[in-house]
Amino acid sequence: MKCKWCVCDMDGTLLNSDGLISIENESALKKLQEMGIEVIIASGRTDLMMKSYIKQLELKGHIICCNGGLVKKIETDEVIYKKLIDKETAEKVIKYCFENAVNFLVYTIDMVYSNSENQRAKYYENLNSSLSQEFRIPIDYIEYAEIDKLLEKDIFKVLIIEKDDERKDSIARHFSDVTELAVVTSAKGLLDIMASGVSKGDAIKKLSEELKIDLKEVIAFGDNYNDLEMFEAVGFPVAMENAVEDIKAHSKFITRSNDESGVAYAIDNLFLKHKQS
Questions:
Q1: Using one digit for the tens of pLDDT, what is the confidence trace for 49-74?
Q2: How far apart, in whole angstroms, are the C-alpha atoms of residue 178 and residue 92?
């Protein structure tokens, strides 16, 4: 197949269970870049959480963040596309979280906000202690009384952290009735809330229109429900062995798991070997 872009989800796909990019995945993606193929990370994360990975892979093109709510040019930090949660709707979501003791993170252009005593935020704080200043994730904590101050920011996504499946499903049902919102599971215990219409697939379409790229010439890797629209948009979707069944059903190839460098395995066997022959 002709390939112009290789688009990779991060958690559960490009990253292993330790949150690292394996040497094999790094090598395979760098080989693609040497061949003139752009490697694009498409993640539910904000780019503030991806700086070290961008550096490791030496990416120079574009990045899709917040499940498609934000698309940026890496080298210039230029915003190519963005879609925000409107202020009134964001207020309802954040108030619901405070009033129902739901842990959350709010992604803005320059800061990640959290409720206090949120263990996921504490994890990022601990991670920061091992990172150099340029790669640290900016985190701040807010209280209920500070919601108005937070709403002065552009909000791309609210991440709900809830390990109890029944409670998470209940929260998802509550917000799925809000027409201004898109709600999707991105990993076990995580619920992503964005503006209506936001998806990785929609972001890829907008970027391809901007750069005149035929999506039939795009390969994409993913593992969870927030990758579904991306799989439907591209020419060659590849599911991880650890992917949910809906993603596997929409794939053209199922590679090894994220803990077995599945991205590299697929690139080597479906693309690089063919090129070398």
A1: 999 999 999 999 999 999 999 999 99
A2: 10
